[in-house]
Design goal:
By secondary structure, the protein is an alpha+beta fold. The chain has one domain. Helix content is 26%, strand content 32%. The chain contains 2 helices and 5 strands, in the order E-H-H-E-E-E-E. It has a 5-stranded mixed β-sheet with strand order 1-5-4-3-2. Strand 3 and strand 4 form a beta hairpin. The longest helix is centred in the first third of the chain and has 17 residues. The termini are far apart.
Length: 91
């Protein structure tokens, strides 16, 4: 099992996001908790670096994405650091 934390910025952003995006994030978090941070089964999943990942939560206009980071050194903790539109994503 992995522990998934939401960055404070993400917690604040959730209030302004559509319900479908909040629901998709909840599903992603549960998937990461059970299967780990490498989520090739999500749309447009890719690694952004050694320990950073992203995927699309919703395609179309606007496209919503999630970006998360896994901590190294055998600690099974992941932090979701961004949820929002593709245009503002911290790639």
């Amino acid at each position: 099992m992995w522990e998934v934390k939401l960055a404070r910025k993400v917690e604040k952003a959730l209030q302004g996001l559509p319900r479908s995006i909040r629901d998709a994030l909840t599903t992603l978090v549960l998937d990461i908790e059970g299967r780990g941070p490498v989520r090739g089964n999500w749309d447009n999943y890719s690694k952004l670096g050694k320990n950073r990942h992203h995927c699309h939560l919703k395609k179309g206009h606007p496209t919503y994405v999630a970006v998360w980071m896994e901590y190294a050194d055998g600690v099974r903790i992941v932090e979701v650091e961004y949820v929002g539109t593709h245009e503002s994503a911290p790639y």
